[in-house]
Backbone:
């Protein structure tokens, strides 16, 4: 089924779900207007449907082939990649001094969602390059920027992230790839990396790897990791391509989904050492890599939104067409489209509501990043940075969980046809699963939220955030619009649950870390559904105020509050009371 960019939903999330309109008025996003943004998004939607969408099935069916160290992408991929780059889409948020358009992350976020809706396996390569650009621009030396940034921004070369090793996945600090000083300012890198997305491909004539490695005299753990730029082909001082570097793909993986995206085992230095160029300081590589990872985490969250949107569109179309059973009073000779059955209605509305909630959380995070980078005074930028840091694990994990959940609901709506590959519903589910695993598993995101983000400024950052959610609830209650049903009450209960669970978490972190860690994943879900419910209500209220077509916004917000936010109470109990049960039952896991 063809992808239709959901421009009305995207626009509503941007305008009413996030604080984009006041941000535009404040002026820290330059002279950009909402009309400009909508024009960019309309064109991006067209490109996603017409240029990227055709790569989706081809990528899934043909996958990638590996022969003599070279990877060939599926038919049509090269052409699509070049057309997309020529349209300037890779450069959308890139730094203007290196050929980028300098548009805010929030605009790029909406486009990222569309690229990944159209073809997630295509989108993942581009999001890594964009993360690499941001990282290199912040932490790279002037010489590295001069040689690499323009090509990365245009898309002439792509970027990768080389972290994972066979014994170092979530525990990056355990990595063993070695770096030695070569004596001329460069380094020799030796080791093996696994699961490297777009580690090798035929889309461009150079690939710029960003590899974590350890010097012999480095301290153990993450404090002893350095970051290196390791090009596939060495770049000469004049920018031309020189000799092939000592880094190669050894194989590509066969995967559950994302067949179009090559996932490579990479060998560095089996000819004496790959030439690497240090980024930042020795032993301070994790901090630099976090710039890339945080950007990529938000983008992976947007993959979750993108795939949920796609699964929803497909399910809606199928449910309108497929006839089974009858509605009340229908003659026995007729049958009804399944969309008329109340259970299917609920499923489809859940898909729509969860998708719009995750979308708005991701866009809100993107705007916080923009404010942190471009906002008014130092204090405002600091506060925005803290907000972006708090929300990034939620944007990543909640949204990719939604991708899987909505993908699965989409399969269910199709019945048996959902399990059969030809409808495409199964592919969305298979592809969606990866979002919950890479860029740090969702379990690791939950731990990051609880152990690193909640304690920011002694809990003040999350407290301020909870205060904002409360103000949205107050506004819902003050509106007293019957179209919102029980929304105010349900959202108030959810925010109270999140507040109590947050206080419990903060206390447990000091007293009983295991209890806090045991509750981290349900806590993140609680954070996500509470935030999502409030942001949908905010969209509904703003639509009401604006006098725009508020009906569908009110209905969706109400549906979410009355059907999904109500999980909050159970999740609070799982977090707060369930930890004891985990401790008590863990003997069952003993061998
Ligand atoms: C298709 C694909 C593409 C990828 N692309 C890249 C890439 O481009 N670059 C790259 O560097 N990596 C990449 N990865 C690797 C990916 O980031 C890792 O798979 C992921 O971080 C998890 O590491 P792991 O597989 O070793 O799992 P493990 O770390 O072994 O984790 C297994 C399980 O244990 C849990 N767990 C681990 N540690 C803890 C803990 N301390 N507390 C609680 N739970 C824990 C995890 O959440 C997970 O559920 C890719 C992976 C895949 C499958």
Residues:
């Amino acid at each position: 089924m063809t992808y239709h960019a959901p421009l009305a939903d995207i626009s509503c999330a941007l305008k009413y779900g996030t604080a984009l309109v006041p941000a535009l008025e404040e002026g820290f996003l330059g002279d950009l207007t909402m009309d400009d943004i909508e024009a960019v998004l309309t064109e991006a939607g067209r490109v996603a449907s017409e240029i990227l969408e055709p790569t989706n099935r081809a990528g899934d069916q043909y996958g990638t082939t590996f022969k003599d160290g070279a990877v060939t992408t599926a038919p049509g991929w090269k052409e699509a990649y070049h057309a997309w780059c020529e349209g300037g889409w890779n450069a959308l948020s890139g730094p203007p001094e290196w050929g980028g358009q300098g548009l805010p992350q929030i605009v790029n976020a909406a486009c990222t969602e569309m690229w990944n809706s159209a073809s997630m396996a295509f989108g993942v390569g581009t999001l890594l390059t964009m993360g690499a650009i941001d990282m290199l621009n912040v932490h790279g030396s002037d010489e590295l920027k001069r040689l690499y940034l323009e090509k990365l921004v245009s898309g002439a070369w792509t970027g990768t992230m080389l972290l994972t090793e066979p014994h170092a996945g979530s525990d990056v600090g355990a990595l063993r790839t070695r770096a030695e000083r070569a004596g001329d300012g460069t380094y020799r890198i030796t080791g093996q990396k696994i699961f490297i997305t777009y580690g090798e491909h035929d889309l461009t004539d150079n690939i710029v790897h960003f590899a974590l490695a350890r010097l012999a005299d480095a301290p153990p753990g993450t404090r002893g990791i350095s970051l290196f730029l390791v090009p596939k082909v060495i770049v000469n001082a004049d920018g031309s391509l020189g000799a092939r570097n000592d880094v190669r793909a050894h194989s590509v993986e066969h995967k559950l989904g994302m067949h179009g995206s090559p996932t490579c085992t990479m060998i560095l230095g089996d000819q004496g050492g790959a030439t690497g160029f240090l980024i930042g300081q020795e032993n301070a590589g994790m901090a630099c890599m976090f710039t890339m990872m945080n950007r990529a985490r938000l983008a992976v969250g947007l993959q979750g939104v993108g795939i949920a949107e796609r699964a929803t569109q497909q399910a809606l179309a199928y449910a309108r067409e497929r006839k089974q059973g009858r509605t009340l009073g229908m003659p026995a000779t007729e049958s009804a489209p399944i969309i008329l059955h109340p259970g299917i209605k609920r499923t489809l509305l859940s898909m729509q509501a969860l998708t719009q909630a995750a979308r708005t959380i991701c866009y809100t995070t993107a705007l916080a990043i923009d404010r942190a980078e471009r906002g008014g005074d130092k204090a405002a930028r600091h506060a925005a940075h803290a907000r972006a840091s708090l929300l990034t694990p939620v944007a990543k994990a909640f949204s990719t969980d939604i991708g899987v959940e909505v993908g699965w609901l989409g399969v269910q709506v199709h019945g048996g046809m959902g399990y059969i590959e030809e409808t495409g519903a199964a592919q969305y589910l298979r592809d969606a699963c990866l979002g919950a695993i890479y860029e740090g598993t969702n379990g690791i995101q939950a731990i990051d939220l609880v152990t690193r983000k909640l304690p920011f400024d002694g809990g003040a950052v999350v407290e301020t955030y909870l205060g904002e959610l409360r103000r949205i609830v107050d506004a819902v209650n003050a509106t007293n619009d019957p179209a919102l049903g029980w929304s105010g009450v349900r959202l108030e209960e959810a925010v109270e649950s999140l507040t109590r669970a947050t206080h419990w978490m903060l206390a447990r972190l000091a007293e009983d870390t295991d209890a806090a860690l045991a509750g981290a994943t349900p806590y993140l879900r609680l954070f996500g559904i509470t935030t999502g419910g409030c942001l949908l209500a905010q969209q509904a209220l703003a639509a009401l105020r604006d006098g725009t077509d508020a009906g569908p916004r009110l209905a969706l917000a109400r549906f979410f509050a009355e059907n999904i936010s109500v999980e909050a109470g159970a999740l609070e109990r799982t977090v707060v009371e369930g930890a004891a049960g985990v401790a008590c039952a863990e003997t069952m896991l003993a061998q």
